[in-house]
Design brief:
- The structure holds two protein chains of two kinds.
- Chain A starts with 18 loop residues before the first helix and ends with a helix.
- Chain A is globular, with a radius of gyration of 20 Å.
- In chain A, a hairpin with a 2-residue loop joins strand 2 and strand 3.
- By secondary structure, chain A is mostly helical.
- Chain A is built from 13 helices and four strands.
- By secondary structure, chain B is of the alpha/beta class.
- Chain B contains nine helices and ten strands.
- Chain B has a six-stranded mixed sheet with strand order 6-7-8-3-9-10, with helices on both faces. Chain B has a four-stranded antiparallel sheet with strand order 2-1-4-5, with helices on one face.
- Classes of the chains: A mainly alpha, B alpha/beta.
- Chains A and B meet through helix 8 of A and helix 2 and helix 3 of B.
């Protein structure tokens, strides 16, 4: 697995044979999940968890790769979901509407990134992207003729190809499983080799990267748009699965969820991002708590992470396991 | 001239860090740029490489006016540099650092080229170590490697021997000499005067942002203005009073 933070972004390492049994177990668990759940609600939790894995990976494809903290990605999710919803509820084929949603998300990211990434870095970048997120939220609320305002767009149709349609929870589950896998694999492929090294160099030392001859602006912009495309794919799914899109999709709870995933995992640590995404969805469910508890848990975990393990838990856990292995060999 | 900084002026608010300095560097030259702390050496470097915008003046490189060019574009044109505070990519391996630096300029270095450079920098045993784990001196060597892997036309080195042990100083100096003999033009900012006088054919001295001496390295110790501003009387005395 590509691990940006360990410096292996640019050089894909051969897969350790000892990892295959673990991967096989994960694959069996993921594929068999719909057969072992007790009720539809548990299946819904599984769908939502995989959806969050997808958006977590999409977000980390920019934030983890470049080190830039974006608050705009929830807005990209919303733009795609709204575009899918608006078009598909107005007679456009759902597949085309979904594609249009992805394009809308990408174009929005291109427009924002082209201006912002040229001019600002670090904290200022975060604030500007937060401002963009707020604008999308306000527009979604206020542009009632198009977005139907606070009540949102509902009765969104879902995709069907021939006689096969997304008309059951089980099908939605496998659809989101495929999407999350696709987002993961495409992201890994995209971050391989020279491109991965370029982004890692920006994260490590942007000034030096430019002094070496890198057009950092273009590299960041391409990562920003790529990440928005992945977010757009997940946004289109969201609209079809929930059949309703409201302005809340661009609001703080989603931004905070994305931020919590990356902060807790550690930016650029793919396995950590997947685990943190699953934990932040399934953890509150196991404790039978609701949305508010998830937000509380996210905030609390971020606070503890920043204080105890500021680079995220994945590198800390990896170091701990390495020390244990070394001690066992002695 | 390969490089011509023409009447460069850089102001930070009310402070003029570089005050109309002009510097010409011919291809193949090994130029030393010295001067007291705060005299504007690094700022002049930054102006040449695009890290700092000039308030006035022009930068010409290889016959082109590059004053308005972005930093990365100047680097691609063949202007390479190292920084006073040693800078590498700490999470990348030594070899990855070098591969990236070449790729950033649109090159695709062969494994042999990378290996040769790692050997040249005496980092062979550390080739697959994370750059962040190297010693300070080794990082200095690697930072020179980042600058030279893509065969730049000119190499601007900002105090590459500062805070480095004497053995490493000799090693770095020897490697710079070898690069110069291979045809790389070098401009060296350095406070280690014996090294500057030994290796540089010409020396320019900067004081309060102005060039106060620009001539052969052999004559710098005899210059009254340089003695006054930088070297001190004691250092310049032996050159003025033959034994």
């Amino acid at each position: 697995m590509t691990d940006l933070a360990s410096g292996r972004a640019g050089t894909v390492q051969p897969t350790s044979p000892t990892k295959w049994p673990v991967r096989l177990a994960v694959a069996v668990a993921a594929l068999g999940f719909p057969f072992v759940v007790a009720n539809d609600y548990q299946l819904h939790v599984g769908i939502f968890a995989l959806f969050v894995v997808g958006i977590g990976i999409a977000y980390d494809s920019f934030v983890g790769a470049t080190g830039y903290r974006s608050f705009a990605h929830a807005a990209f999710l919303a733009v795609s979901a709204y575009a899918t919803a608006i078009l598909s509820t107005n007679g456009i084929d759902v597949g085309l509407a979904w594609l249009a949603g992805v394009v809308a998300s990408a174009v929005t990211a291109l427009a924002i990134g082209a201006v912002v990434l040229r001019r600002v870095r670090g904290f200022v970048f975060s604030i500007v992207t937060l401002g963009f997120g707020v604008i999308v939220y306000v527009v979604a609320n206020a542009w009632v003729e198009v977005t139907r305002g606070p009540q949102g767009i509902y009765q969104i149709p879902s995709l069907s190809i021939g006689t096969f349609g997304l008309n059951s929870l089980t099908r939605y589950y496998y659809a989101v499983l495929v999407l999350a896998m696709l987002v993961h694999i495409v992201s890994l492929l995209w971050l391989r080799g020279a491109r991965g090294r370029r982004l890692l160099a920006i994260r490590e030392n942007e000034d030096l990267a430019e002094a070496c001859g890198l057009n950092a602006y273009l590299a960041k912009l391409s990562a920003f748009v790529f990440s928005a495309v992945l977010m757009g794919v997940m946004g289109g799914f969201y609209a079809q699965y929930y059949t309703i899109v409201t302005p809340d999709l661009a609001w703080l709870q989603w931004i905070m969820l994305l931020m919590a995933i990356v902060v807790i995992a550690g930016p650029g640590h793919r396995i950590g991002v997947i685990c943190a995404s699953l934990f932040l969805v399934i953890g509150p469910e196991i404790l039978r708590a609701g949305q508010s508890f998830r937000e509380l848990l996210s905030g609390l975990l971020m606070l503890i992470t920043v204080l105890v393990s500021p680079e995220g838990w994945t590198p800390t856990i990896k170091r701990y396991l390495a020390r244990r292995r070394a001690a066992a060999r002695r | 001239m390969l490089l011509h900084a023409d009447n460069v002026r850089v102001r930070f608010g009310g402070v003029t860090a570089v005050d109309g300095a002009s510097l010409q560097v011919a291809a193949g030259e090994f130029l030393g740029l010295i001067g007291p702390n705060g005299s504007g050496k690094t700022t002049l470097f930054n102006s040449i490489t695009g890290d700092q915008k000039v308030s006035e003046g022009r930068i010409h490189f290889n016959g082109q006016d590059v004053t308005g060019w972005a930093k990365y574009k100047r680097a691609r044109a063949g202007l390479a540099r190292t920084y006073q505070n040693v800078q590498v990519f700490p999470e990348m391996l030594v070899t990855e650092n070098l591969i990236f630096a070449a790729e950033a300029r649109g090159q695709s270095p062969s494994p042999q080229r990378v290996r040769e450079l790692v050997d040249f920098l005496s980092l062979t045993h550390l080739a697959h170590e994370r750059a962040g784990n190297l010693s300070y001196g080794q990082k200095k060597l690697l930072s020179i490697g980042l600058a030279v892997i893509s065969d730049p036309q000119i190499l601007l080195l900002d105090e590459p021997m500062a805070a480095v042990n004497p053995v490493m100083v000799d090693l770095i100096a020897e490697r710079l000499d070898a690069l110069n003999k291979l045809g790389v033009t070098i401009v060296l900012v350095e406070h280690n005067l014996p090294i500057v006088l030994k290796h540089c054919s010409r020396v320019a001295v900067l004081n309060f942002g102005r060039i106060i001496y620009n001539g052969p390295a052999t004559g710098v110790r005899a210059d009254d203005g340089v003695a006054e501003a930088y070297l001190g009387r004691a250092y310049s005395l032996p050159a003025k009073v033959p034994s």
